Amino acid sequence: MAAKKTMRSRLSLSARGERVSAARKDVEARGETFYQGPSGIHLSAFPPKERWDDWVELDSRAWPRREEHHYMLVPTTCFNCESACGLLAYVDREDMHVRKFEGNPEHPGSRGRNCAKGPSTINQVTDPDRILYPLKRVGSRGSGEWERVSWDDALDGIAARLRAAIIEQRQNEIMIHIGRPGEDGFTERVLASWGVDGHNSHTNVCSAAGRTGYQFWMGADRPSPDHANAKVIYLISAHLEAGHYFNPHAQRITEARANGAKVIVLDTRLSNTATHADYWLSPQPGSEAAINLAVARHLITTGQYNREFVRQWWNWEEYLQTCRPELPATFEAFEEVLGTLYDEFTFDYAAAESGIDAATLREVAETVAGAGTRFSSHSWRSAAASNLGGWQVTRTLVLLSALLGSIGTEGGLFANYWNKFVPKPIHTPPHPGVWQELSWPMEYPLAQNELSFLLPQFLKDGRGKLDTYFIRVYNPVWTNPDGMSWMEVLSDPEKVGCFVALTPTWNESAYLADWVLPMGHASERHDTHSYEQYDGQWLGFRQPVLRAARERVGETVTDTRQVNPGEVWEENEWWIELSWRIDPDGSLGIRQYHESKASPGTKLSVDEYYGWMFENSVPGLPERAAKEELTPLQFMRRYGAFEIAKGLGAVHAFPVPQEELADVSVSPLGRVYTSTAKPPNPNIVPMGAPVPDEQGRRAVGIDVDGVVRRGFPTPSGKLEFYSSTLAGWGWPEQALPGYIKSHVHPDAMAPDQMVLLSTFRLPTQIHTRSANSKWLDELAHTNPVWIHPSDAARLGVARTGDLVRVQTDIGHFVAKAWITEGIRPGVVACSHHMGRWRPTSQDDGQRQMMATVDLVQDGDDWSMHKVKSVGPYASSDPDTKRIWWSDTGVHQNLTFPVHPDPISGMHCWHQAVRVTPARPDDKAGDIAVDTAKAREVYQQWLEMTRPAGQISPDGLRRPTWLMRPLKPHPDTFVLPRP
Ligand code: SF4
């Protein structure tokens, strides 16, 4: 039977192949581009790019009449997750309005495909509740009283404050806090031009721990897995939802599965991805590193590892020299040690920790071993982001690739900087001369990113204050743990003098702002971006599509407000204008970085900014554009993306060209240094390794068997099995890949507690930005608590839909139960996407998903009760009268205290909770929080840290080779004198 099935599918594949070839011939004969598309058949794929100026579709609603619509197709980039997939805006040529968004087949990462959130951009653009004009608060903070103001009022008011702070040397009172960056480096450069170390991100509540595990191994904070060509894919996350690069990875994983790849998913919850896995492992939360180490031990003890790769590319010599100096410095001696290092991690041990039976773990280990160099993997949010020591989950996962030698191989793992391209901008301001302690505090010298979620506690500690605080596509009250502490500090003008919300939509934080300034969605702003999604490099271009459309028909547009709805502005023009108003005569040295080069003394336009970049720093783009008689900017406006290179291969093994090897010195362990200033191509040559030798020479490569090769941007130049950084900065016990027992390990919990998984995304929602995407809201609008039938029976939760009360360390929330076998017994889960709210004081808001709540503060005690659910309402969109849902879930994050990991700085999201049936007065969505208790938990976790002042080996605040999105001047790294 199985054989017959295979034969049938082979026949159908071959028949399909013939149809595709015939279609290709037809299309190419017409001189048009052939897009095979997801269906494999041209007709159902994509509009050929030759017809993007006048694409005709029939109006389905006019049927049976034949009514044509003529569209101009203009590319942009989706802004609804970090994947940056290509979109095509369908601009109606009759009235120059965007009618819909589809995939852009010219985009190398997404290849014309999108998830549900891409086409839903049209809902965001036409959202009847969006913010269209600049607003200024007129009542007290949070009172909900606003007046419409001009952009000039907003710019002048904010610029005056910033100018005063800069002149008075209060640079550290300025901060820009970014949610979804959506671009590479623009905001960082604005801050640098102001001399301000004020970049704050959301990364430490998102992916910092995942990044840390990669960083310590290979000096790159992200992997670029070649899923499409893998034989085995090992995913530690609900990958396509809670992982990274949803659609670009999903389509490549799907391709690999079609080619017979095995998929292993470690996720305590049955995610959509897990349903497609060959092995779904539902481990005890926090035990994932123990599983990885059992697999690694199996590879080691059975000799199923790539000896030659380990010998060449691990820093085993440094390990022996430092940790086992009594042994001979030979690979054989290292192998002997390696053979015993993980003795503890037997399958039985991992089974006891994880609850997965030992036989299954052995089978998984054998499957991994069978992959050889075609083993791809990914660990991102999920377990890494949820557990104390979660970064070791990633580090132990990379250990598997490092053992198999599946790094830089077809079907293996690449370093992100090999496949990500960041073009040089027209101006590069110098590093700021100040260090922001509120984001990079002394206690966390190894933190991967800013300690953003501790800002309220730091402000309460009196470590500093903010004169002007911007949020940009960010909603700290809703996104972070302990949101009520955020409310307390954002309401206090002594702690935050001026609060500016740059946002396209209302959110829980913007209600507390002094200025609410409308910014653009995906089709209303400029950005460039490049992400590591396969072994290739591409650059994408987000643009205001109506600007591009009008330019295509010969009109001139000089400001995105001329084409955007209302007075919606794009950020880049806004930052340039703001910078000019801070420094109108250029005397502060700021204006020079926002001036035109072509016409000195005038303002830099976005056309010049991107035109210069595409002309001067994107290899191959000018030549490609010239073939179509376009300028590079015109090319990017027409196609939206450009593939710079593909099949880069194992960059770490590239020999360093002789011309770069002038005046070199070589360390005893083979690190090669040069006195030449800069690498020739910063996008290929590792940039993250500014660990100079004693004479200040730049690391250029690593001597491997007598050949100087590029190596990795780590201190040693090799893959760091042993991290001298962790050892030297106070954590010698964590210097090797290992297993840290989680804060929710069974040993750490009371018998009546359960683990709450709170990190998983819903694939059809966008964190805090999709509340008025009507299509997405209809698909997903609530977040019940997943509970196993055995737990439901034990706790007395009779049926799905019954209310449960979930008690955390600082409060509780009330939600509906969903009784399901899709979760491990002893564990409950709740998606973080839901529970959007607006207080009764606010008339404005997103009425499709935000419930109206009564929010009460009594000293440190806060409570929230829903007073009105969502429902149908009249608006400019007739569909809002058809809203049939009323349950919008619960905002669980409010009830979580902060859990900063002492090494990575990541908030460890898992909570130890007590789940009970709700009390008679409880209502769905109820919240209670005690912020005094939240402060106690913060102080307990702070005690776990080893501050730089006590452990720094070189008198610096932080190792210089670790990344920092905005790096201040090297002098600022020096620890202040006690
Ligand atoms: S995966 Fe979906 S949300 Fe993310 S960029 Fe692509 S289309 Fe947009």
What does this structure look like?
The chain is an alpha/beta fold and 978 residues long. The chain contains 29 helices and 34 strands. The strands form seven sheets. Strands 6-5-17-16-15-7-8 form a seven-stranded mixed beta sheet, covered by helices on one side. Strands 25-29-26-28-27-33 form a six-stranded mixed barrel. Strands 1-2-3-4 form a four-stranded antiparallel beta sheet. A hairpin with a 6-residue loop joins β18 and β19. α3 crosses α21 and α4 packs parallel to α21. The N terminus is likely disordered. Iron/sulfur cluster binds next to α7.
Heteromolecules bound: iron/sulfur cluster
Q: Runs with pLDDT <50, length 5+? A: 1-11, 680-689
Number of contiguous helices:
29
**Spatial strand arrangement across the major sheet:** 6-5-17-16-15-7-8
Question: Structural class, from secondary structure content?
Answer: alpha/beta
Shape: globular
Distance between the termini: 77 Å
Q: Tell me the major beta sheet.
A: 7 strands, mixed
Arithmetic mean of pLDDT: 93
Topology:
Layout: H1 2-29, E1 55-58, E2 68-77, E3 86-92, E4 98-103, H2 121-126, E5 135-137, E6 146-148, H3 151-167, E7 174-178, H4 186-194, E8 199-201, H5 208-218, E9 223-225, E10 232-236, H6 239-242, H7 246-258, E11 262-266, H8 272-275, E12 279-281, H9 288-301, H10 307-313, H11 316-323, H12 331-341, H13 347-354, H14 358-371, E13 375-379, H15 391-404, E14 413-415, H16 416-419, H17 455-461, E15 466-472, H18 476-479, H19 483-490, E16 496-502, E17 515-517, E18 527-529, E19 536-542, H20 545-552, H21 571-582, H22 606-616, H23 621-627, H24 632-639, E20 641-646, E21 664-666, E22 671-674, E23 698-704, E24 707-709, H25 724-728, E25 754-757, H26 774-779, E26 785-787, H27 789-795, E27 803-807, E28 811-819, E29 827-829, E30 837-839, E31 851-858, E32 861-868, E33 911-917, E34 927-930, H28 931-942, H29 948-951
Parallel strand pairs: 7-8, 7-15, 10-11, 10-13, 11-12, 15-16, 16-17, 25-29, 26-28, 30-31
Antiparallel strand pairs: 1-2, 2-3, 3-4, 5-6, 5-17, 9-14, 18-19, 19-20, 21-22, 22-23, 23-24, 25-33, 26-29, 27-28, 27-33, 28-34, 31-32, 32-34
Helix pairs in contact: 3-21, 4-21, 5-15, 9-13, 9-14, 9-15, 13-14, 17-19, 23-24
The structure holds iron/sulfur cluster (SF4).
